[in-house]
Structure formats: structure tokens, C-alpha cells
Amino acid sequence: MASLLEMKEVFRNADAVCFDVDSTVIREEGIDELAKFCGVGDAVAEMTRRAMGGTVTFKAALTARLGLIRPSYEQVQKLISDHPPQLTPGIRELVNRLHQRGVQVFLISGGFQSIVEHVALQLNIPTANVFANRLKFYFNGEYAGFDETQPTAESGGKGKVITHLKEQFHFKNVVMIGDGATDMEACPPADCFIGFGGNVIRKQVKEKAKWYITHFDELLKELEER
């Protein structure tokens, strides 16, 4: 197992950094915000807590939560316009710095493509670097399920995305940063996992992650010291 010093070396020499989105890049959980917007916030928040704790499979939790919410296309668009996702302090500066260094930045999320693409736009991350779940709608805009073929719809899906990126781009050092169990389990294939507790602290991740931070400034400092 890599030491903290070795992990910091991997981060400083990363050619790709992958971020989780909900409670990492943005302050909230997108699915919980959508649930609140659709009037089923409490029931869905409880399901999210169980999913993040790793006690149920991600796909089972996602199916159950979306079955309760049943968001229409109009509701999703109105959520984004009326309550746009709030960026976590320091993330914009960190992504800018990584881009300046020629590092590829990816967003890998169990959240929804339309919301995550809105976040990517604010951070100058190309939409091609977004991997998230796709909601499906009938022609009249009613909820029609989600695309179950997306790797991010499965437990272990973030690791599959990273494996795909390594094969496609021949990255040597890939870093995964996130707050939850699904992020931690993506290493390996990621070469380094950094736990993030700036918005919410998941006990399991805090206890098991060798490198755990609560503010993105800590990572900016690592890059500046070189």
C-alpha cells in the first residue's frame, strides 16, 4: 500500500484527476435537491444516506429513489435554473490550476448528466469529460426511467470509467477525489484516492482513506510547493 508521501507524489504528477460531484465539487447532493424540489425530500434523503454508507447497491438505491421522485424533464430544467448547484469553495481555483499544468480533469458522478454538465460548464471542463447518469423522458416530458447501461448506474461504475480512461488515453497517474464509498472503491484502478470531507463527512471514508482533506486549498498548496 502506498504511503501518504507516495500518494502526494502521484497527485503532483497526475495526468488525470477525477472528481466526484455531489458533496464534493458541489455542496449539495443533486438527487436530494431534485427530490426536495419534487416534494419527496425526506424519504429520498434517507435512501441517499443508506446508499452512501455502502449498505445497498448503488443501482438499487438509484432505482428506488427515482421511482419516488419521478422527475419530469421540465422539473429538472427548472431546478437547474431556479436552484443552480453551488460550487464548493476552492474547486474553481483547483481545477484552473490543474488545467494550467496540462492535467485532464473529469467529473465522474452517480448524479445526473444534465446537472453535472451545468457544473462542468462553470469549471471549463469539456462535456466529453463528464460521466454521469442519464435520465430518460417520454415525448411529453414525463419521467421514463434512467439509462441503466451507463457504468455510473452500477456499484463499481466509477472504477469502470477510470479503467476506460486509462485504456483510451494511456494515463499513468490517475487520482480520484470524492466524499463517498463509491469514490473510495474506484482505487484501484485509480492510482490514488483522496477523501473529501469539506461538505459532509462519511465516517467510513474518513476512517479508511489514507489521505483525507476538508478543503481544496490543501491540494492547491501541494501543487504550489513543487
TrEMBL record:
Single GO biological process annotation from the record: L-serine biosynthetic process
Sorted UniProt keywords: Amino-acid biosynthesis, Hydrolase, Magnesium, Metal-binding, Serine biosynthesis
One Pfam entry name: Hydrolase
Pathway terms, separated by semicolons: Amino-acid biosynthesis; L-serine biosynthesis; L-serine from 3-phospho-D-glycerate: step 3/3
Keyword Magnesium included in the entry's annotation: yes
Any one of the GO CC terms: cytoplasm
GO-annotated molecular function: L-phosphoserine phosphatase activity; magnesium ion binding
Family: Belongs to the HAD-like hydrolase superfamily. SerB family.
NCBIfam families, A to Z: HAD-SF-IB (TIGR01488), serB (TIGR00338)
Name under which the protein is recorded: Phosphoserine phosphatase
